Amino acid sequence: MASREFGLRDLGLKVYGPSLLYAVGLGAIMPVIALSARDVGASVAGAALVVTLVGVGSLIMNVPAALLTARFGERPSMIAAAGAAALGMGAAIAARDAVVLSVGILVVGMAGSVFNLARQSYLAEAVPGHFRARAMSTLGGTLRIGAFVGPFIAAGAMAPLGLAGAYWVGLGAMVAAAVVGFWVPELPRPGAAARSDRTTSAPGGGAPASGTSMGAIVAAYWRTYLTVGSGVFLLACVRATRNVVLPLWSEHVGLDPALAALVYGVSGAVDVLVFYPAGKVMDRFGRVYSAVPCLLLLGVSMALIPLVSDVWGLLWVGALMGFGNGLGTGIVMTLGADYAPAHARPQFLGFWRVLTDSGMMVGPVIVSGVTTVASLATGVMVIAVVALVGTGVFAYYLPRTRP
């Protein structure tokens, strides 16, 4: 009965605090990376490339992040990653050319991969199964809040310090995340035999792995990656394009930047409001009842965008898109924790994050490519189809019962 009394108070700021601070730091610099690159002499195309280095760094570091977390543990990995991100911020502050700035941004992206994987693995281990989705959705909510607050804090710092002010905010937030990380309770590190006893088959496919190397885990759980992992890849693809499509369509229908920002802000606000109910639905009824409505509403809202021609229509569609995205808050992390074998959780999650990061990079590329050869409306409709395909994948492969 004691496990049923577990709640967010058992995690509190000691667990969510570092994640919130990390999100604030990253949110502070994201809007100004391109401007910083231009400031140190990069071309417009070069500035766009520097922005992508956050995602590139995360993608190339996912497998090493899994190995590091498995070797040293979740808590030390989070602390080290926050420290490395602070160094990356410092390099960006000191940068006088695009090369040094690019190295700093790449380090921030690589550190983010370690930090994100370690905190997901930590929660998967620390939280009872019946509360897992609420814990993960709350984590997703803290990330959204941090990303929302970060740019406002950065704006205040940039008034006296210029563009460097955003990176000073980022550096301070990362240092604070590392310091607070020392108060995160350390998880017990059971021996190999104990871990082996706890290993079970992945739900929906995959046999217990005979080894803990990345190759052994992928070989043992390839069916899970191919089925549910495909849905996760498609969800990440659609989510990434949401951040591109709303601003682009706002410009397409002639909205000024202030109104475009309002549309994006309303969508983000609705997204944040539903993160905890989304987790409760997942825990009480099952993951499919969050994943399917999430992708379905994202697909429907994408399909509606080409029909919109004014600010009011875009506000309503943006709100629907935010609601759909919010319904899936934490779903990727929750599914990863559900399917990961207990004896090799970081290794499993490392490749899981490769799928999600790949989807986030592919989505905007699809929109860009289709828009180049056809039109923006066609590109948006292609993503709507991708969302509907992902809906079908989740509806077919996810169980209808509670975990």
Concise description?
This protein is 79% helix and 0% strand. It is built from 18 helices and no strands. It is an all-alpha fold and 403 residues long.
Structure, described:
Helix content is 79%, strand content 0%. It is an all-alpha fold and 403 residues long. The chain has two domains: 11-185, MFS general substrate transporter like domains (Growth Hormone, Chain: A, Up-down Bundle); 214-397, Growth Hormone, Chain: A (Up-down Bundle), CATH 1.20.1250. Helix 6 packs antiparallel against helix 7 (164-181) and helix 16 (331-339) packs across helix 17 (345-373). One of its GO terms (molecular function) is transmembrane transporter activity.
Tell me the Rg in angstroms.
Answer: 21 Å
pLDDT < 50 runs, ≥5 residues:
190-210
The CATH topology of the largest domain comes to Growth Hormone, Chain: A
CATH superfamily descriptor of the largest domain? MFS general substrate transporter like domains
**Major beta sheet, specifics?**
none
Strand content: under 5%
The average pLDDT is 87
How does the overall form come out from the CA principal axes? Answer: globular
Keywords: Cell membrane, Membrane, Transmembrane, Transmembrane helix, Transport
Organism: Zhihengliuella flava
InterPro entries: MFS, MFS_dom, MFS_trans_sf, MFS_Transporters
Membrane topology: Multi-pass membrane protein
